[in-house]
Amino acid sequence: MTSEELKMNVEKALEEIRPFLQSDGGDISLLSIENDNLVKVRLEGACVGCSVNQMTLKSGVEMTIKKYAPQIKQVINIED
Asked: Could you tell me the CATH number of the domain that includes residue 27?
């Protein structure tokens, strides 16, 4: 899989997750993919400072991204 295909698959995963985050007043954006196995995202809106955002990140976001791009090992949230 090329880096471009990987990015497209990660974006597809985020599109699947986005409606759930938006229903709670939040959102997510892809910042970067490093070494084709580490995804950096930014949780936005109501997700910032939310006490369950780490759980959301691991169980929801990371799991969905791995479904589309199995070579991804980790997803981390980058805060400003």
From this structure: 3.30.300.130
